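Input sequence (533 aa), recorded before submission:
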Amino acid sequence: MNRKTLVLPAVIGLLAPVLAACGGPDIGGKGGDAIVVGTTDQFSATKEAPAPFDPAFAYDAGAWNVLRQTLQTLMRAPRGGGEPVPDAASKCGFTDTQNESYRCTLRSGLTFADGDAVTAEDVKFSIERVLKIQNDNGPVALLSNIDMIETNGDSGIVFHLKTPDATFPYKIATPAAGIVDSDTYKAKQLRDGVEVDGSGPYTLETETEGGKVVKAVFTKNSEYKGDLKFQNDKVELRSFPDAASMEKALRDGEISLMTRTLDQDQIKELSENPVKGIDLIEMPGLEIRYLGFDTEDSVVKSKAVRQALASLIDRGQLASKVYPATAEPLYSIIPNTIVGHQNAFFNKYGEPNRQKAAGLLRAAGINTPVKLTLNYTTDHYGTATKAEFEVLQEQLNASDLFDVTVEGTEWSKFRENQKRGEYAVYGMGWFPDFPDADNYVAPFLDKDNFLNSPYVSVETRNKLIPESRRATDRGAAAKPFERIQEIVANDVPVLPLWQGKQYVAARDDITGVEWAINSSSDLQLWELGRGVS
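Predicted structure, token format:
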């Protein structure tokens, strides 16, 4: 489990500012110059994904980072983490002791960017729209516990929940609950294309080439009436085909900051050979990577096969060999630093052990070597994914208990294939919707889960998840989460691999970088400004 670590000029916590500005802050974008941010996230409207920025469809970190800048939500994540705070709402709270009725009051004078008033009916329309469309790619599961929405005049909204849920404020702080205008969004139909209209901090204009968004320009919304403080008037998000071309643009001064995703070689090079005028910043991260299983597929239907994989995979070697600077081994579906985490897989399987794996397969009457394919996406989680799966292949084949091949597929096809059950074993990543253990459990194990997994644990679904959601004090939910992790380690419907850190590289005249990405990888572009030399 040893791994090489790099000593970096790092931010240890999000509350520790590190960038030294040349002088006082200057509002970036005034005078016409936008702060330009690079990303390797790719956005396009395709047959498979016709509405990448529709809140009823979008459910990935890249698209949500666009929506967080443009759509307003009743609540939002605060600057330094913690419980959600009001944004479109002036106040929100549960009205009962069972956490089943949640009331919000809108701020006065709210309007969309075009000047139309934002009312309680717009909030109701927006959230009910996600529930009605019920797109299988979208975030509908986050809102599916809503039983009924009442409005009271123009500003009062009451959510009646089917079951108690103390995490509900976190869920309506996500883009799934983004407020849209019924004049531009239809109640039961996705809005195709890449346009977004809302009452959020910025308006959006996009530039496309060959159907792909190459530039997204966010301009300060003069009609915005939430409580965010702007450090700029305009930010341009520019998509690059790979991390190398993004870094070149940073070095050449074409962009001011590069976000997701820097690769391992870049992080190592920028840390060991710093570039004048460029700072590399390490930030806490809650991303996890894991293997998922179609538990009805004949290859992995036997629990013993999945348990044998859990007994063989060497997470420490995987992290140190492929992700030496950005990953650490993960032994639970709930990452370290999240309340309720325990090393359930290590507790059950210990260090990689061929003898244990062979015993599990022999006891279940499984003939070896077991032939299986590890499927991964070639273009969604970074260029190192291929190397990661080659290491997994090498580890498993070295045991002589498995005969493994690996196969890569582009994300647009991979995700659809995975949901249809075409892969027995597949690699996925997860960026949390909100930083609570519930968001590492329900999306994989609850009804209508994100993976469309056939696996069911009755105890988890019917008892433990509901029990955890009754706890207003999230620390009090640790006990049911600990039991859930034990069940997952035994049944192995998913197999956690590693937990990631995140890095940003920025020109040293850019301020607010330490606030621009939170631990959930949410972009907060309004925090970026320019220093004055």
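Checked by second reader. Residues 1-31 have pLDDT under 50 and may be disordered.
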